[in-house]
Each structure stands twice: as C-alpha cells, then as structure tokens.
Amino acid sequence: MALVPRIVVVTRPTEYELLLGRHGTYGQVKFFLESRGRDAEALVARHDRLHAARGRVLAAIPNQWRRAAVPRGDLDRFLFEPEDVVVVVGQDGLVANVAKYLAGQLVVGVNGDPGYEAGVLVSHTADRGAELMIACGEGHADEVESRTMVSATLDDGQELVALNEIFLGQRNHQSARYRIELFDQVEHQSSSGLIVSTGTGATGWASSIHRCQASRLKLPRASDPFLAFFVREAWSSPVTGTDIVSGLLRDGHTLRVTSEMNDTGVLFGDGIEDDALRFGWGQTALLGRADRTLQLVRA
C-alpha cells in the first residue's frame, strides 16, 4: 500500500517577525523603523502577503494527506522522507537554503511577495503552487527541472553541498593562502578567496566577479551539468601566482585546494557563514559537481 503523500511547507521569518521578536510590540517596531526613515506599514504589508500565500497553500492540502510546516531555522533538524513534496513559500534564497537537505524530493517554489521578490526559483503564485503541489502528490508532475549543485569534500570525509556556490577563504576576510590544483597545473595563491559556482549561482555572485574580471568564460546555465570557478583578487608575489584564476569544471573534474591558513580558513555554501566547515592548515578540499541535484517543479 502506497504511503499517504506528505507536504512539507518551508518558510522563513519575515523582517517584521524578526523585528517584533526584538522589540516586542508593533508600536515599538513602528517607532524603531520611523526613527530611521523606514515605513512600518510597508513591512507589515509584506508580512501579511507572505502569510496569506502560506495560508492558501496549507488550505489546499487534502485533509487525508500528511503535512509538516518547517521554519528555515529547523531545517538541519528535520527528517525529510524520500517521497515528500516540498513547497517553499518565500524568497529565492530559501530554495537554496533547503536544497542541501534534500535528496531528489520535488520542490515547488511559491513567491510569497511577487511585487518584491524576483521569483527565479519561487516562480509560482500561491494558487498555481497549490495546484502543482497536488499534482506532485498524486504523481503527475509534468515539468521538473534538474538543477546542478556543487560540493566540497574534505580529506576527513566532511562534505558541504550548495545550490548557488561554495566559498573558500578566510572567515575574517584577510588574505587566504592555499595551494590550488587544476588538471596538471599547480599554484600557490594569496587571494580574497575563491568561489565555485553552479549555473543557478551564475546569475549572482559569480556574475559579479565575471563582470569585474572582464572574463570571456561562458558561464553555465541553470541546468548545465558543469561548474565555473573564480579566484578573487589573486596577488602575485615571489611565492604566489595568478595563473589559475578562473575556469570550468566539466565531466566530473574537480578543483583540488590545500589550505595554508590557520583556524580561520573556512568553506561555506550559499552565503551561510554560520554553517561553515573549518579549513585549517594542511587540509585538502575537492570541489566539484555534487552527486545530487535540485528537482524544481516548473509546470
């Protein structure tokens, strides 16, 4: 007998909720914002729109189906089931936050505030997202896009997976020192760190570095099965070089990096510094395409 479908709805606190937790009452939040030239009503309106979208999604779940509501802060403690249908209500970045905890589950992205959020990954209205959620639960997802992810594996077995990019460098943003290996090229570098980006991330941080470097590298598209890497502000000296500053990782190739940093060396994914791996002196990281992909429901 098949399991009853389970819908997992993921959200994050709104700006208003975070401020309310800090200041206690609406009046205090209003005073705090207006004293800084910001409009409290606009923040509350965005909060209301997101919660209305979340409410429409939850209301559409059939009564006999199972359901779970998970805030972003609990993702690392939540046990996803293989057949879950995950509905992300909120921002594009929230899809990236949840992606690394998944292993092939279908994801429906619902834009909680279409007038404010870009909606690249959360591309559906609440009503359309609810329709797709039901179709997925019934096994009728028509168009699913597999998005490449990036991984970093340390020599002690620890692994970090991200949807957009992985950063390697110093936690304190001082110069990062390391040995980098790409195919038969080897170089000691001192830089502001490096990123390895997927096609999803290529529209963000990687795009900015690509533009600043005036790079001719062709960035991957969202579903392309390869990655791009960029070294930030590499410094040339008698012992450090600037030859390996960008490139593509195709066909399962990896970038091998050995740390020459002390305890402040780190790797983190998708801009989440609180979920970092330490990357101290002598540790080696292999950065490349992850074994898993994000299964994003498009239609």
Structure in words:
The protein is 22% helix and 33% strand. It has 299 residues and is an alpha+beta fold. It has 2 domains: 6-142, 3-Layer(aba) Sandwich (Rossmann fold), CATH 3.40.50; 148-290, Tumour Suppressor Smad4, CATH 2.60.200. Strands 1, 2, 3, 4, 5, 6, 8, 9, 13 and 16 form a 10-stranded mixed beta sheet that branches. A 6-stranded antiparallel beta sheet has the order 12-11-10-7-14-15, covered by helices on one side. Strand 14 and strand 15 (277-278) form a beta hairpin. Helix 1 (15-23) crosses helix 2 (26-34). The two termini are 28 Å apart.
List keywords for this structure.
10-stranded mixed sheet; alpha+beta; Tumour Suppressor Smad4; 33% strand; Rossmann fold; 299 residues; globular
Summarize the structure.
Helices cover 22% and strands 33% of the residues. It is of the alpha+beta class and 299 residues long.
Please identify the top-level CATH class of the largest domain. Mainly Beta
Our count of helices gives: 6
Q: What is the second-level CATH architecture of the largest domain?
A: Sandwich
Helical proportion, percent range: 10-25%
Give, in order, the helices and strands: EHHHEEHEHEEEEEEHEEEEEE
Total E-strand runs: 16
General shape? globular
Overall mean pLDDT score?
Answer: 94
**Helix-and-strand structural type:** alpha+beta
Largest sheet: 10 strands, mixed
End-to-end span in angstroms?
28 Å
Spans of at least 5 consecutive residues whose pLDDT stays below 50 are none
Number of discrete domains: 2
Rg is 21 Å
CATH level-four homologous superfamily name of the largest domain: Probable inorganic polyphosphate/atp-NAD kinase, domain 2
